[in-house]
Design goal:
Blueprint lengths: L1 H24 L16 H23 L3 H18 L7 H19 L8
Helix pairs in contact: 1-2, 1-4, 2-3, 3-4
């Protein structure tokens, strides 16, 4: 399970960075109608995704060192990512569903106790 956890966590962090940078430098990349669910402009979303990705990298490094605070932070950030991608369903439906599924996988991987852990 450790390999799946590391792979899902690494891919999830990489996706957040790319989404943030894309929204910052190419604001016309995501197309959304006027009645769709996007609360902020794309520049604000770009900074949000970039900041979330940086926090996920910090939590991922903490997870590699076995820190419990990093696992709890990672669960919270993955849940926040999944909820925030609901706003992007109109702009990029398949990609958003993929990231939501990866976020659920990361949450599962971080909630499973490490091998050899005792209560």
């Amino acid at each position: 399970m450790d390999g799946v956890r590391r792979l899902a966590d690494r891919d999830g962090r990489r996706l957040q960075h790319h989404r943030g940078i894309t929204a910052l430098f190419r604001p016309t990349y995501y197309l959304v109608g006027t009645a769709q669910l996007l609360v902020f402009d794309f520049n604000a979303w770009g900074w949000f995704w970039l900041g979330l990705g940086i926090l996920q990298v910090a939590a991922g490094v903490g997870c590699l060192y076995g820190q419990m605070w990093a696992r709890m932070t990672g669960i919270g950030l993955a849940a926040l990512s999944a909820i925030a991608h609901l706003a992007f369903l109109a702009a990029f439906p398949l990609w958003s569903l993929l990231v939501i599924a990866l976020s659920v996988l990361v949450i599962y991987g971080l909630m499973v106790p490490p091998r050899g852990a005792t209560a």
